[in-house]
Amino acid sequence: MAAQFATEAGDEPMNNALWRYALQVYSRPGVESFLLRLQDEFHADILQILAVLWANETALRISEEALNAPDYVAWRESMIQPLRDRRRACQRGEHGDLYELLKKAELEAERYGLGLLWTVLKDSPAASENCGIQGLMLICNSEKECRELLQLAQP
């Protein structure tokens, strides 16, 4: 079953196995709030975390170079982060419509970012062992938090 995420037909940058996996994992109980806490407290990149979890699930090798692919880093810095900053600065109650538009734009930017990561990772060689903790430690320096996240992300 795990291998199906890596090889599903019809994958393309905006609708790919990593995006579909991210939607599944993010909707599991406790995962969203945990990831947001890692982002806020540890400055962890949620998309990179989801990419590591997907690579772990699909038995693909993960590397710091792949997670920091130049196209992804440039996209994150020029699109995702500015949209997130603007959304957070927007008063939800006072500017509700604008807040929601920024939230949608941020989600689409993240979707595109996951597409960039998927493009880099999809052809990675098979991992000889589970990459979960080691991969997550490339993003978040708390082994305790990484172990807890692996537990939460389990189906």
In short:
Helices cover 70% and strands 0% of the residues.
Give the overall shape, derived from the CA principal axes: globular
Order of helices and strands: HHHHHHHHH
Seen as an oligomer or otherwise, the chain set is single chain
Largest sheet descriptor: none
Helix-and-strand structural type: mainly alpha
Question: How would you characterize this protein structure?
Answer:
Helix content is 70%, strand content 0%. By secondary structure, the chain is an all-alpha fold. The model is unreliable at 1-9 (pLDDT under 50).
Summary tags:
globular, 155 residues, disordered N terminus, mainly alpha
Please specify the SSE layout and strand pairing.
Elements (H helix, E strand, L loop, with lengths): L1 H6 L9 H10 L4 H12 L3 H13 L5 H4 L2 H20 L6 H26 L10 H6 L5 H11 L2
